[in-house]
Amino acid sequence: MQVPAIAAVLDDFLPAGVADTVASAIVFVAAFAVVYVISRTALTPIVNRALASRDLDQHARKPIKKIFNLFVVFVAVAVAFGMAGFGNFLTALATVGAAATLAIGFALQDVLKNFAAGVFIFTDKPFRIGDWIEWDDNAGVVEDISLRVTRVRTFDNELLTVPNSNLTDDVIKNPVAKDQLRLKFLFGIGYDDDIDKATEIIMDEAAAHEGILEDPGPSVRLTELGDSAVGLQSRFWIGNPSRSDFVKTRAEYVKAVKKRFDEEGIDIPYPNRTISGDLEMAGFESAVTADD
Question: Which domains does the chain have, with CATH numbers?
Answer without folding.
Answer: 3-107 (no CATH), 126-168 (2.30.30.60), 180-264 (3.30.70.100)
